[in-house]
Amino acid sequence: MSIFFQNISSLTNLKILSIPSNRIETLSGLESLSSLEELYLSDNLLTGISGLESNTNLRVLDISNNKVSRLENLSHLTKLEELWASNNQLSSFEEVERELKDKEELNTVYFEGNPLQKAAPALYRNKVRLALPQIKQIDARSKAIIFLGSGEMDYKDHNSSNSFV
To answer: InterPro entries this protein is in (predicted)?
Structure first.
């Protein structure tokens, strides 16, 4: 267990934990945080997802910008609403479907920058929608302000080819 996690283990009523960019390699030590609802772990050194078995109240899990190669050990997170997993090493749609299909509350996923998205960018969003029909948002949609010749402004969707989400 890391020294950091030893120091927070007494905070059993903690609801939100944000620890990005801390060179965290494993999640062991979070067992006592059973009230945890939001966990932000972006920009660390995680290679897998384990150690969250006691954190069944998680609604938001952010593991973006790590080195996670397998989507596993999430089946017990039945309250999960958002999973942010951008820029990892996830490559299997089968794992995505297996781990997330029964999550009725799950409405937002971020998988951009993973091999599963890069391999077939044109089909990626359709595959996620088929695997996870409950999803309402797949990755972020950026809007840009376009200045028209008359000085008027218009909002343009950069992902207009993916407007079905």
So the answer is: Leu-rich_rpt, Leu-rich_rpt_4, LRC72, LRR_dom_sf
